[in-house]
Amino acid sequence: MKSVAIIGFGGQGNWHADMIRKNNVVSLAGVWDIRPERLAYAGSMGIRAYASREELLADPAVDIVLIATPNDLHKPFVIEALSRGKHVVCEKPVALSVSDYDEMTAAARAAGRVFEVHQNRRWDTDYLAVKDLIDSERLGKPLFVASYVQGSRGIPGDWRRQKEYGGGMIYDWGVHMIDQMLKLIPGSITDVFCLTTHYTNSEVDDGYRLYLKFDSGVLAYSEVGTYNFISQGRFYAQFETGTAHIPGWHDPVEVRECLDWGEGDVHPVLTASGITRTMAPRSDRTVRSYNIPQPSSDVHDFYRNLVEAIDGKAEKLIRDEEVRRVLSVIEAAFASADAGQVIRPERPL
Length: 349
Hints:
This protein is an alpha/beta fold. Helices cover 31% and strands 24% of the residues. It folds into 2 domains: 2-118, NAD(P)-binding Rossmann-like Domain (Rossmann fold, 3-Layer(aba) Sandwich), CATH 3.40.50.720; 122-297 and 328-339, Dihydrodipicolinate Reductase, domain 2. The longest helix is centred in the last third of the chain and has 20 residues, at 320-339.
């Protein structure tokens, strides 16, 4: 069984420790954190607390080093662990630029070690439900896919509010939502338009609204907000023959399928100050409504695949080119927000 040691024992590091201790795929060697209180907490849980990063990296029993530090430390810590002969898993965003990520993957190739990014939200069942709907073409091809993540507590923690540490919601949540969109929609991105919000924080974005236009004609929209006291739901998607909606993280997919486009006997409906036929509801004769349950998933599949990749039995689930593409879209999103205009890359992303 492969042994994992964690650098950075904050919220995400603690989550990984809990997941590792619950599976039979890898074992937990121990953790190291710069804060003494976190090391004391690890000890109280029966987890080995390394006295230093050097001690952790020098431990021959450690096969895999997991980096769960603030974002600005990912690059130096990843390269250091690779140079010490360790396989490496890094939390997202793995890097703050494409060029930094290229240096990290080059270091992995030079060391002959597996280096993988923990894109855990590929196991989100709401996302998998939409993916199943798109892949099956149950409602035809997608036309528009919108993803919303909305809370009302501002930016969490401390370093996530500071630019020098790689804070902000594009890096924190956008890296996940963009990755999901790129897995949902085939084709290349030709246009990127992004607006950031600063309702609670002037230094980094506390939310964003991002449009991605694909060469297939599909338009994707991703919105993350931390000042939303009423949520718009989780997913909304339009297809050739219907519409799908997921209200919340664990809700089933609500589907309304169009059975007959034409409807000659539409009666106008009264709105606030007038009548309309355009917005009149459809009759049951022309549409069918039903729910689709969300599929199941197992987050431990990440570690199962990681071990197989280290043993040369499988390819990594989160491929380098996919991670690099997400970072390229993030760079284009920041460029669009700074310029206040659509970004059309010389080469589609």
